[in-house]
Amino acid sequence: MGVDRGSARFAWDNECPHYSEHVRAFAMERHNVTNAAFMEFLDAGGYQERRFWHPDDWSWLQREGSAPAFWERDAGGWSWRGMFEPIALPPAGRST
Question: Residue 59: helix, strand or coil by DSSP?
Fold first, then answer.
């Protein structure tokens, strides 16, 4: 993952330095999870339900918060915190 600063013309700060890690075999869903589908999980209480999480993940969740770190909620709903401004996420239930 990542890149060493001297080996690329440009890299974001969070892409440096180069780092390697052995990753055990894992399973992956066939289809992407949309923001709308994840928002539905969040709004249904998925971050408060221990049964949906592996024990280590549940411990992390208790330390880190109640939504993805780059999502923000206000009276208008959920937004994705972009580089320069928040971007409104589609309401849950929409597949975009």
Answer: helix
Give the whole-angstrom CA distance, residue 83 versus residue 31.
27
Per-residue model confidence as pLDDT tens digits over 7-33: 888 888 888 899 899 999 999 889 888
Virtual torsion, Cα 52, 57, 60, 66, nearest 10 deg: -30
Beta strands in the chain (DSSP E): 71-74, 77-81, 86-88
The answer to whether residues 3 and 60 touch, using CB atoms and an 8 Å cutoff, is: no
CA atoms of 9 and 81, how far apart (whole Å): 26
Question: Residue 9 CA to chain centroid, in angstroms?
Answer: 27
Confirm if 49 and 37 have CB atoms less than 8 A apart. Answer: no
What is the greatest pairwise CA distance in the chain? 46
- How far is residue 70's CA from residue 55's CA, in Å, rounded to a whole number? 23
